[in-house]
Amino acid sequence: MSDQARALPQALKSLVEAAKGLSASAERLAQMAASTRYQDKMGARAAEALPTLGLAAMGLTPGQRLICERVLNAFETGSVEGRYGAIAIFADGPNDIRQITYGRTQTTEYSNLRELVQMYVDAGGRFAEELREYLPRIGRTALVDDTRFKNLLRQAGNEDPIMRQTQDVFFDRRYFQPALLWANDHGFSLPLSALVIYDSFIQSGRIRPDLRQRFPERTPSAGGDERVWIRQYIDVRHQWLLNHHRPAVRSSAYRTRDLAREIARGNWDFTQLPIMAHGVSVDDRVADHGLVEARGFAMEPEERHALRSGEMDDQDEIWCEEEANLEASAFVKTFDAAAADDLASLATRILNHPKIELATTHVSLVADQATAKHNIVDTAGGARARRSNYGGAPGGTVALSDRLLGGLLALADQHSFAISELAGASHSPNSRHYVGVAADVNSINGRAVRAGHPDLETFKAKCRTLGATEVKGPGDKGHNTHMHAAWPRPV
User: Domain 338-486, what architecture?
Assistant: First the structure.
């Protein structure tokens, strides 16, 4: 064997090692960039710090990239900044088994969650050692009912900036950059096209070939019209979502509905802001408050101990006193347990919603500051809702439930209605109104609630679908002139 032949294996080995070193260096640079970004109290975004190959390829500005990121955050967790500790449970794993979805833009237990946790462990996060023992099991052994594992994920996302940095790098590398590169390879150049394609990569992991076969327009690289292709793709994908066999997927059709609205507005370059993403207002302004704190980020010591020890209930997942159905679980994903400022946001949306009417008087005609309108105004201002102090009512104040407020907003997607009472008025002893989880509705779709109302049963069924476990109306004692819906009592 010649000296040249003997040297070849060693040369190949050296080349492989060099490639590994370059890959490791690139990964470290991405993490360092993310770290620098989060130390910047002006909230500089990933567009200015993370790898930008796809970003440059499509010609997106940092502001346009920020819009894409924030819309997807709002779609997935109901917050423009994203809830890094958010967990939801869906029966959409292999063979429709239940699985964990987690993080700012939500990755799943049987997909890429193991990769995300591995990155966090490798980065030496605060909860790295406790999560390390789970690495061999993620995606191989069901962890959906492992309370300790879920609590560790929540704590890492809510309390540890390293997990937030890791998620930013992970979601950019795993979803955003591949989406932009696919768009560039197929000739797309408009920001709204990038958003549509990115949304597909987040929800489906790709542009599904079976959906591409259902409409005639070709991609721009094949001679097609970009705007026509995006419009036809959204139409087809909307119908696919609406008719999916999984209720949780059907309930996510708000995504394509909102994207179709931007197409109809001609908002291809994001010049018309804000964009409404599942009722959340999205723009490209840079936050001036540094890290946005999710619920739990500033827990009291006793609460943090309860969470770490597994004594705290899974309030993010368990909506009903009975087993929650899939669509209720999907709604948990959007309206995860929220901080007070998120309650204010939900209340503000109710206050301004054209399909929700709020009573300014009680049926009893007793005048106080606890009417339905007062309750929502107080909550929108960051205060607790007042309860009445007459009859059997206890007086004082109560925080309205995010489950209740989120449910009312979801009902308004399909119905207009008038709310006669929330936390105020005098009700039966131990009423759920007094703990902020119930609403009385006295008009649906412009007609007073009475026996025989054509939409009453549909409305009641939707309340149950959204997690209400106490639904009464005409035919039930004391409910002949209104419909009562109540969510589970707070733990």
Answer: 2-Layer Sandwich (3.30)
